Amino acid sequence: MEEPSEANAWQAEHARLLSRSLKHWTGCGLMDDEPDPVIAARRLYFAPFVLLSHATEADPVINYANRAAQQLFEMAWGDFVQLPSRLSAEAVARQERDGLLRRVSEHGYIDDYSDVRVSSTGRRFLIDHATVWNLIDDAGHYRGQAAMFSLWRPL
């Protein structure tokens, strides 16, 4: 996927998948107050909270990272969308992260995830109260997972 920009309508279709999936599980979508999908997608890309997603590969690779995610993880879009999502966690936390992803797969979403993450430069930070949810398309097919959080602190 290309980095969201005006040229690709800010990846509005992917933003729609993120929002509709969250709404399916929680009753609340992303940018529900914005009727224009392109404006909503642009707002998500520049939102003050972190928003990430990965697809369905056996070792899922991040396929979306908004600007806040890129800044927090200290990664440019091109590097981020080549990163297996497991590598965003510390090695010691990866087993716990795998358990979390199984829990999300079983229940559709969770909204109480806290864990240590590491940026591309090795800077550690704690994320708190992240929401993680399964992505499902209009036909109900599984399309990956997404995460969103606005609370973090350096360690």
Account of the 3D structure:
- With 155 residues, the chain is an alpha+beta fold.
- The termini are far apart.
- It is 32% helix and 28% strand.
- Strands 1, 2, 3, 4, 5 and 6 form a 6-stranded antiparallel β-sheet that branches.
- The radius of gyration is 14 Å and the shape is globular.
- The longest helix is centred in the first third of the chain and has 15 residues.
- It has a single domain, classed as PAS domain (Beta-Lactamase), CATH 3.30.450.20.
- The mean pLDDT is 93.
- The protein is built from 5 helices and 6 strands.
Short structural description:
The protein is α+β, with helices and mostly antiparallel strands and 155 residues long. The protein has five helices and six strands. Helix 1 crosses helix 2.
